[in-house]
């Protein structure tokens, strides 16, 4: 997209990504079944975690975790094993 715009503006003569492609990895059913799904905090565990952050955490812990947790959870970045 950037290179197409550069072509329009005549900043470059040829799009270097014209024939580029991403190789797709095809997993078999067996490989997918072997992978362990990440475990996330249950509602009660999250409530306990936030209560602990409020009572015994650092100054901004209680303010930041309720904001960050849904965003990170949506991106699947905080599996349960890290808590």
List keywords for this structure.
0% strand, 83 residues, 49% helix, flat, mainly alpha
What does this entry look like structurally?
By secondary structure, the protein is an all-alpha fold. Helices cover 49% and strands 0% of the residues. The chain contains 4 helices and no strands. The longest helix has 14 residues, at 43-56. It is flat, with a radius of gyration of 22 Å. 0% of the residues are buried. The model has no long low-confidence stretch (mean pLDDT 79).
Give the arrangement of secondary structure elements.
Layout: H1 2-8, H2 29-34, H3 43-56, H4 61-74
Considering DSSP H and I runs of 4 or more, what fraction of the residues is helical? 40-55%
* N/C terminus separation: 40 Å
What is the string of helix and strand elements?
A: HHHH
Largest sheet: none
Report a brief summary of the structure.
The chain has helices spanning 2-8, 29-34, 43-56, 61-74. With 83 residues, the protein is mainly alpha-helical.
């Amino acid at each position: 997209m950037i290179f197409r715009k550069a072509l329009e503006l005549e900043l470059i003569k040829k799009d270097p990504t014209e024939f580029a492609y991403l190789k797709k990895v095809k997993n078999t059913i067996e490989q997918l079944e072997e992978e362990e799904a990440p475990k996330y905090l249950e509602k009660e565990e999250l409530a306990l975690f936030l209560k602990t952050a409020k009572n015994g955490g650092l100054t901004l812990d209680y303010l930041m975790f309720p904001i960050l947790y849904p965003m990170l959870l949506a991106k699947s970045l905080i599996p349960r094993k890290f808590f």
